[in-house]
Write the structure tokens for this entry.
Amino acid sequence: MGMDKRDGRLTAPSLSQVRRRAYEAVHGVVSDDHNCERGVGAAWAVAKAAHAEFGPVGLAAITVELSLQLASALERIAAEQGITAVDLADVWFVDCHAAD
């Protein structure tokens, strides 16, 4: 979504806009190996800017894009390790299985 100049309403983001924001968030996290807080702050800054520009629907689109890209990476890593991507995801997100 961006701002429609004619009536001031948000418009749906293009796939290239969604992918760019997803890239910016990931790049912000991985670009500073020595300062985790700075990387997390960069990802938050991207999320806040995307929300301001695209609204909740745009953030949802970015979340889906990030999920697709993570799933693709997990599939490649799992194939190299000789396990299923689902099993690898279970290991990576093991804390999500614990009762709160």
Q: What stands out?
A: Residues 15-97 form one domain. The chain has three helices and no strands.
